[in-house]
Each structure stands twice: as C-alpha cells, then as structure tokens.
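Suppose you are handed only two things: the residues of a chain and a line of SMILES describing NAP. What would the bound structure be? This form records exactly that question and the answer produced for it, so the two can be stored side by side and reused later without any lookup.

QUESTION INPUTS
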Amino acid sequence: MIMEYTNNSCRPIHILFVGAGAVGCFYASRLHHPASNIHVSLVCRSNYSIIAKSGVTLKTHTFGDYQFKPAAVYSSISDAATSKEAPAEGWDYVVVTIKALPDVTDDSMDIEPLIKRAPTGKTCILLIQNGVGVEEPHRARFPSNPLISAVTIISAEQISQGVVRQNRWTRISMGTYSDGLGGKTWEAKQLNERGNQCVKELVHLFTEYGKLRDAEFYDEISNQHVRWHKICINASMNPSAVLSGGIGNADMVMDPELRMHLKGCMDEVFKAAPAILGTPFPEKLAKPDLILTSSERNKGGRPSMLIDWEAGRPMELEVILGNPVRIARRHGVEMPRLQSLYALLKSAQGRRDAEKASKKVLEQEALKVKSTL
Ligand SMILES: NC(=O)c1ccc[n+]([C@@H]2O[C@H](COP(=O)([O-])OP(=O)(O)OC[C@H]3O[C@@H](n4cnc5c(N)ncnc54)[C@H](OP(=O)(O)O)[C@@H]3O)[C@@H](O)[C@H]2O)c1
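ANSWER OUTPUT
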C-alpha cells in the first residue's frame, strides 16, 4: 500500500547510517540531497579511510555509475556520538544497516550513544536488515523513539572497499514497529502514529529525491507480513545453499529433491506466519510454488549466508532461522524443517569457529617456540 505524503517544510533533515556496506551505501546515496537540506552521513568501520578520503563509488544497474560524498564520515559509533561537527540536537534518523547478528553484538546497545545525543524520543530508528525479531531489542531499549522496520529486495555487494555494486532491484518496504501488534495500548498507539509519520516522510524522501519507484508504506501488521514473507525465501534458500554444498538459488530449485525440500520449508512459514500475526498472508504475496518458479530465473544468485559461510564470517542465523523457530513455538506452531536447518547450521558454525580458534592458538604457540629458538 503506497500512501501520498508531501513534506513542504524546509527544515534540515539529518540522517546517519550505521554500517557502510552494500545496503547502507546504496540507500544512503539515494537519500543524500544537500540542496534540499537533507544531509546523510556514514559510520564506517574497515572502509573508513577510503570513504573519508574519496567517498563511495556506486556502480548501479538502476541509476548508472556515480560518486556519493556523505555530509560526514565517522570511523566508529563513538566517533559520531562525540563529534563536535555532528548535529547538536542529534540525528532525525539513525539507520542501522549492519548485518543482524544478535549472537555476536547487540545493535541496540551499540547505537545508544547516537540516540542519546538527541532529546529523548526524538530520533527515529530505521532498521534495514533481514530476518524477524530484529526490532525487539530496540523497542525495549528505546521505549519512546519511533522505530521503523524495513524489508529490502535488492541485490548489492561491496566489491572492494568503498565501491558498491547494485546488481538489480531497489525495493524498500517500510512499516512502523510500536509493540509488534499494531499499537494495542495508548502509549503504543501514540508511537504507532509517530512512526507512521516517519515512514511517510521516508517514502517521500526516497521517492522524490532518491528516485526510487518502489519505496513503500505499510501499516505495522502488513509490514510484518512482508517481513515473514521474506523469511519464507531467506529461511529456506539461504541455509539450504550452505548445507547443499554451495549451490545457488536457480540450481537448487532445478533439483527435484531440493525443490521439494525448499517447498516444505516455505509451506511451514506460510502456515506459521498467519498464526503468529493473527491474519492470513495477503493474496498478493507470492505463494511458494510461484517463488520457486521465479527463482529458476535467478541464475548466478547466491544467498548472502552462503557468501558469509565461504568467507568464514558469522551468518545471520539467529534472525533468519532461530528467531522464526522460537517465535512460532511461542505461538504453539512447530517448524520442524526450519528447526533442523537451524540446529545443523548452528552446530557447523560452532565447529568452524572452534577449529579456527584452536588453529590460531597453535599458530601463536608455534610463533612463541620459534622466537625462543
Ligand atoms: N546485500 C544485499 O543484497 C542485501 C539484500 C537484502 C537484505 N540485505 C540485508 O541488509 C543488511 C546489511 O547487509 P549488507 O549486504 O549491506 O552487509 P555488508 O555489505 O556486510 O555491510 C555491513 C557493513 O556494516 C559494517 N559494520 C558492522 N558492524 C559495524 C559497527 N559496529 N560499526 C560500524 N560499521 C559496522 C561492516 O563493516 P566491516 O566491513 O568492517 O565488517 C560493513 O561495512 C543485512 O541484514 C542483510 O541481510 C542485504
């Protein structure tokens, strides 16, 4: 559901993206419009020096190639939170675009100094991350801040430090998150209304200045449907790509046994989500058979979980598998296929990390021995 919104005020809008990777740099570059008083800054990490020096190079399928020079570039969250140049009244929007890894870091705790820079409840937090349940830690830590949950359909990657390639798609679907139930109490209703205003403003900014054709407004519950619908794809395809030995989406769906397995996973989410959200999936959302058929065309598509696994990085296992399984269970629904994928991959990741750690210890000991010889 797309809603009209016109922001006629010329007030400055200060936006800070935390996580200058593929998704962060792409959407930040679309929002930055200093001539219209929209100022977008980035919190970087390993790519800080190159982005601080030269900005971000975008190579996009949709908008061609261009350079993005942020309003400010920070080397860390604490650098941004304590900077004298940062807006004195804090940011209007803090956008979280780091990978969602609650088993490694608590994003809500990490961004607290940024939110505290503004008067209580002023900053709107926008999460552009995969998975479900990502909102809960932020809602608990920042009870009076508007919180927006965004689902993206995009294929983008950082191909070298400070260079981001968008391969296809731009869709960003956004909805407020008050209590996850659409605002049941008086306080949640107020938050829900403020959140909706922020979503409308963001849709306007992305559409008017970012020239995105598919920045979408959703109400709180409809947005959770979109999130769970994406889980249907991510929770089936991503772990299966790893456990099947590194096969991409199109090849998986062409294998009859794997296709049956993927359909079984998707059916579980299709059964669980309505029980969790209290309403059926809207008819317009593609059913498992259609998702499988359209995946046949996604040749070369490799899920990010597979790429992270191959690179030895932590995978977004908890938000893509662990949370869905736990949330469904709280609502009396078991998802046995997803639970098996979760158990197997969590164990494989644990073993991989333990082996990496013991290899490191052995290498350090060998170095010590060498230096005493
Ligand atoms: N890429 C896609 O096509 C796509 C599509 C749909 C959804 N998503 C979702 O979007 C989210 C972001 O994904 P992505 O592909 O953009 O990931 P990414 O390219 O790995 O970017 C994440 C960035 O966050 C930085 N970061 C991590 N912790 C940080 C911290 N504490 N402070 C500052 N920077 C920090 C990382 O820095 P380092 O490089 O130093 O680690 C990296 O630059 C994920 O939830 C993903 O599942 C991605």
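WHAT STANDS OUT: The longest strand covers residues 147-160. Strands lie at 13-18, 38-43, 56-60, 64-68, 73-74, 93-96, 124-128, 147-160, 163-176, 215-218.
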